[in-house]
Amino acid sequence: xxxxxxxxxxxxxxxxxxxxxxxxxxxxxxxxxxxxxxxxxxxxxxxxxxxxxxxxxxxxxxxxxxxxxxxxxxxxxxxxxxxxxxxxxxxxxxxxxxxxxxxxxxxxxxxxxxxxxxxxxxxxxxxxxxxxxxxxxxxxxxxxxxxxxxxxxxxxxxxxxxxxxxxxxxxxxxxxxxxxxxxxxxxxxxxxxxxxxxxxxxxxxxxxxxxxxxxxxxxxxxxxxxxxxxxxxxxxxxxxxxxxxxxxxxxxxxxxxxxxxxxxxxxxxxxxxxxxxxxxxxxxxxxxxxxxxxxxxxxxxxxxxxxxxxxxxxxxxxxxxxxxxxxxxxx
Length: 331
Hints:
globular, Rossmann fold, alpha/beta
């Protein structure tokens, strides 16, 4: 359970920050996926007035990250902001970003928001490393980046890793037999959920369907968070994951405008400050130390489908991720 049961879908960032006074002051905070019309920027705007020691803003596009940095510095004189450029879908690019971050004089990072992501890429597309792009961006890059900077997070007195996922995970289990959508046979327990596909208005099938690929990548994020949290038992670092809800950001850019408009009409979106509220609870609420690996939505801990909390699947995914990224993940 989170500390404040009154928090819910309409809670905004300022309410959360007021509930945890001084929780941000003096902290080093890293946010990935930063662009002016995204949750990363909304997080930075919310956190900056609360005197963090350092904000590290990471993204793929220099102009977008620098625009947010300039805005934050202008609005909050005296704050220190650093920008790091890398493509979370590329292992080589991640390595360059990690080298820069791990080279900072500061020994620690206190809070990491793994916010970078893509959604519903219309045609199957592969990353530079040969992986389906939503899997590469939303999961493999997230896992590799997190594990590569984990030593700095462990130097924090109370480190917190917040992985952004989605309730869209419910559409698909992780497809160990065909994670890349190459057309391999899928056992029944790895097939998309017909009930969830119907509920989300998604066609059911075993081939590449954009929301199915997105759902698989987010299931992977949840399984990874739970396994990482388990492996961090006894340390000073807590890992949790978050569904921010429907927010009108650039995440929807791959979808036809008329489809996005229809979704926004059917499911009125949260404001950006409401969208980051659950992320802030995940980062700041000390009570979540008691619930490592938790999945949060609308500022509260929520249950996930059995396939997203299966311990054996989490262990299997961890080993597969090490193999796919070519790294041994030490905790």
